[in-house]
Amino acid sequence: MALRPPRLPPLPALRDFINIYQLKAKKQLSQNYLMDMNLSRKLVKSAGHLEGATVLEVGPGPGGITRAILERNCRRLDVVEIDDRFLPALELLAEASVGRMSVHNEDVMKFDVGKLWEEAGVPKSEWIESAPNLHIIGNLPFNISTPLIIRYLRAMADRTGPWSFGRVPLTLTFQKEVGERIVAPIAHPQRSRLSIMSQFVAEPKLLFIIPGNCFVPAPEVDVAVVKFLPRDEPLIRAPFELVEKVCRHLFHYRRKFSFKAALTLYPTDLAEELTHEMYRRCRISPQTLCTRLGMEEVRDMCYLYEEQCRRIPGLFLFDYRKPKSLDELAAATGALPRHYRFSMKQLPPDGVTLKQFDKEAI
């Protein structure tokens, strides 16, 4: 039976909340409040079907989006807010939610969502099943949006934390320019490392743009709402940190040929030989700009680089900015890249169950 939509008791208007609790945005925390409840409801509606869902909200601030989530009749809502000035306002919402909402005064960059859901007994779904009724939603401060999404994408790729529960969708806000980078296709001016990192793990969609003047204080830029749905199969079957390293180097010189950028993956005495090997075997022209590298080409480059790293111990740890000898690096921890955890072995004649498929690893 569907949950009956509960009515929140009368609460002060959001603007009154801010006045009552004397909440002022902190510039150093890049805080901007979304004051328009219609836009908050639009953002929450775009996240998907929340009735009966378990939801995590990151960076709730004074609670505008929090209210909109509670209105959607979720079963459980956890909010993570580092700024303790917001706690009285959020605790009032928690009281009004009649036990459905919990407030966590913690740093979202360190908060263990997987542990929270594990302790709460949240059911897990097989990865290849449809997305579970779990959601992560947030209007992020600009200063943590990119580091946080990289952290979340890594967890998606490794199926850890929230993504040990299945293909949990993620709906977040970013500066418009960052949102455009995340979804940028091949040859788009905004194509970047973040484009590849987002798109090989998930299917990101830029849902809509919120004008900056809808926030208090108004930022100098507009804001993009982006939804990420984890792919059932990544487009690059390689360890996340290896893909991240290759992409970081490829987009190092955005306006020059990608060959020049790829040279920085290798020690000077091996750079020409190994970069030529990469471009020759991947059938890529050395004159290709990084923004014109398709996902398939980046995939092939990652596979070839992984092969080279296994052939030449220490290469994976090489950093041209602070170079060390390969012999020294080969003796260090992590000298070889991890194996991709979810590659399937030869299937047995009688097949495998869904549970076996999801847990199969090298």
In the CATH hierarchy, what is the class of the largest domain? Alpha Beta
Low-confidence stretches: 344-349, 357-362
Radius of gyration: 23 Å
Strand content: 5-15%
How many domains, as an integer?
Answer: 2
Annotation field: number of helices: 14
- How is the biggest beta sheet arranged? 7 strands, mixed
CATH A-level architecture of the largest domain: 3-Layer(aba) Sandwich
Q: Name the shape in a single word.
A: elongated
CATH superfamily of the largest domain: Vaccinia Virus protein VP39
What fold name goes in the CATH topology slot of the largest domain?
Rossmann fold
Helix content: 25-40%
- Provide mean pLDDT, rounded: 89
Element-level helix/strand string? HEHEHEHEHEHEHHEEEHHHHHH
Going across the biggest sheet, name each strand in turn: 4-3-2-5-6-9-7
Distance between the ends: 42 Å
Count of distinct strands:
9
Structural class: alpha/beta
Pfam family, one: RrnaAD
EC number: 2.1.1.-
Subcellular location: Mitochondrion
GO molecular function: mitochondrial transcription factor activity; RNA binding; rRNA (adenine-N6,N6-)-dimethyltransferase activity
Description:
It holds the Pfam family RrnaAD. S-adenosyl-L-methionine binds at residues 32, 34, 59, 81, 107, 139. Residues 39-232 form the Ribosomal RNA adenine methylase transferase N-terminal domain. This is rRNA adenine N(6)-methyltransferase. Belongs to the class I-like SAM-binding methyltransferase superfamily. rRNA adenine N(6)-methyltransferase family. The chain is an alpha/beta fold. It folds into two domains: 14-230, Rossmann fold; 240-339, Orthogonal Bundle (Helicase, Ruva Protein, domain 3), CATH 1.10.8.100. Helix content is 37%, strand content 13%. It contains 14 helices and nine strands. Strands 4-3-2-5-6-9-7 form a seven-stranded mixed sheet, with helices on both faces. Strands 1-8 form a two-stranded antiparallel ribbon. Helix 3 (64-71) links the parallel strand 2 (54-58) and strand 3 (76-80). Helix 2 packs across helix 3 (64-71), helix 6 packs across helix 8 (193-201) and helix 7 (176-183) crosses helix 8. The longest helix is centred in the middle third of the chain and has 17 residues, at 142-158.
